[in-house]
Write a structure and sequence with these properties.
By secondary structure, the chain is α+β, with helices and mostly antiparallel strands. The chain has 12 helices and 10 strands. A 4-stranded mixed sheet has the order 1-4-5-8. Strands 2-3-7-6 form a 4-stranded antiparallel sheet, with no helix packed on it. The protein binds flavin-adenine dinucleotide.
Length: 390
């Protein structure tokens, strides 16, 4: 890896990108006024990330990327820095990876050539569509149907809570091709303009995040848009999620670090009882907990990223531990930051209030914390209690 691709160099570059803060300072990003504003901001951020070459870290070199293969440690470094600066930038960044990873891993040469270079340049916007109204944590309940019809597939169903709904050029979409719960799901590439595809509804989230429901009504796509073989969908999805879970943890660590920095500045300058808040024993204890927990979470994220990049086979345990610990930690740290900001901590227009809304979804998407705990327990029980300590 050349120096300007090193994780620390990328983080310094992101720290110096003044254009990132433009959106973070505008009132609509603190409480987005409309879906149109949210979309415009997402597009602005994507163009910025593309022009800085950051999106190219989400695609392998052979298809327009920076490094031979996508490195978890690099994606983590970028997400941590973006999470620190501005949550919507982190979402715009990672969706390009989440939406295209299945193509990089399981796509044909033609599929990779058609999609990945455009993703790396920000010319195509990517999305991943797994969740349905009745299939959230349990992916084996996916009910969207894909029926073979000559040289095409016809898709019928609904996907909900899909990031980039309406913005995306294409969706890596998972649909059922047979009744077998695990081996009956297949991955497809569905384009925003396909006949029978529409965005049914857009939602407003706690924090700025383009998201909504997709409807597929006799949506016809060519056979060449199937990813991998029929029945490989769940295995493909699990691989993508295992890779990206530590990176969710990294974004959470970035948000928590920002909350700590904001808190340190505040408690040193805010005076009550004749002295700065930082001199109060209770406040010192909170600062100590925040800092120590962030460091512990950060180490778990690093370990998971290293294990993945080293190709250490099964990394479900490390990935789940990293996501679980980092997102739960960040929620606690940010809650303490709001607490130490006092009443102004819950007033719109300050950074800790924005972080408080931005962190919440990370404990739910890509597997809620309870689902991560199930994975951790399953892996530990399978290994007879053996921990992955190096
Ligand atoms: C901001 C945001 C962006 C998202 N983006 C996408 C996207 O781009 N693509 C996509 O496909 N999906 C996306 N999702 C959906 C997300 O992945 C689901 O919300 C998540 O998997 C949980 O599914 P659910 O909402 O149906 O909750 P449910 O599955 O109904 O679960 C509800 C709660 O029950 C508990 N629970 C569930 N299962 C278990 C269990 N086995 N053991 C113990 N407790 C359990 C957990 O507390 C869980 O939060 C997004 C969600 C959000 C909030």
């Amino acid at each position: 890896m050349t120096d300007d691709h090193a994780p620390s160099a990328l983080q310094s570059k992101i720290r110096s990108l003044a254009a990132l803060d433009e959106g973070a300072r505008q009132p609509e990003s603190i409480a987005p006024e409309s879906i149109a504003e949210e979309d415009a901001e997402a597009r602005r951020l994507l163009a910025l990330l593309a022009s800085e070459g950051l999106l190219a870290h989400l695609v392998p070199k052979a298809h327009g990327g920076k490094t031979e293969r996508v490195l978890n440690v690099t994606v983590c470094a970028i997400r941590e820095a973006l999470g620190y600066r501005y949550g919507p930038a982190d979402v715009a960044f990672v969706m390009q990876g989440l939406g295209s990873a299945a193509i990089a891993a399981s796509g044909s040469r033609d599929q990779k050539d058609a999609w990945l270079p455009r993703v790396a340049r920000g010319e195509s916007i990517a999305a991943i569509a797994l969740t349905e109204p009745a299939a959230g944590s349990d992916l084996t309940a996916i009910a969207t149907r894909a029926r073979r019809d000559g040289d095409a597939y016809i898709l019928d169903g609904e996907k909900t809570l899909i990031s980039n709904a309406g913005l995306a050029t294409f969706y890596t979409l998972f649909a059922r091709t047979s009744d077998d719960p695990r081996r009956g799901v297949t991955a497809f590439i569905v384009e925003g303009g396909d006949p029978g595809f529409r965005v049914k509804e857009r939602f407003r989230g706690l924090a700025a995040h383009p998201i909504g429901t997709l409807a597929l009504e006799r949506c016809r796509i060519p056979l060449s848009r199937r990813l991998g073989e029929e029945g490989e969908g769940i295995a493909i999805a699990v691989k993508v999620l295992d890779f990206f879970r530590p990176t969710v943890g990294a974004a959470a660590v970035g948000m928590a670090r920002r909350a700590l920095d904001e808190t340190v500045r505040h408690v040193k300058s805010r005076r009550q009882f004749g002295a700065p808040l930082s001199e109060l024993g209770g406040v010192k204890g909170m600062i100590a907990d925040m800092a120590t927990e962030i460091e512990a979470a950060s180490l778990l994220v690093e370990r998971a990223a290293d294990a993945i990049d080293a190709g250490r086979g099964r990394t479900a345990l490390e990935s789940a531990m990293a996501k679980y610990m980092a997102t739960e930690t960040a929620q606690r740290v940010i809650d303490n930051a709001v607490q130490l900001r006092g009443g102004m901590g819950v007033i719109r227009g300050n950074v800790v209030e924005r972080l408080y809304r931005e962190i919440r979804a990370l404990r739910i998407y890509e597997g809620a914390s309870e689902v991560q705990k199930n994975i951790i327990a399953r892996e530990i029980l399978r290994a007879g209690g053996k921990l992955p300590t190096p």
